[in-house]
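Sequence in, structure out.
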Amino acid sequence: MRGVNPRQVKQAMRKLGIETEDLEDVQDVVIRTKSKQYIITDASVTIMQAQGQKTYQITGETEVVPLSPGAVAPKAGTPAPSAINEDDIKLVMSQTGASREKVIDALKSCDGQPAEAIIKLISS
């Protein structure tokens, strides 16, 4: 069986109106369902666009994290629970005197940025 020339495949796809693009510097991809969270690390992402639709091909190491019953998966753009580290929590608590729960809420609402969380807590 004869091998397929990748260059010819790309040319044929272009003639059919199919474009591909590799995303650079992707660290990880998170897919959330109602019951699970799929965390794909060392991710490689290729976007294929055809007929106005984008298709994403993702490869990498996958970790499946079950969500507790009744838990709501975080909305896109909010940090995952592991994104808020203990040192940031302690720093914000020491600077504001706020309770741990309030500090965690503030860090979540400030995308894990301690300085913004401190300002938010002090100004409220």
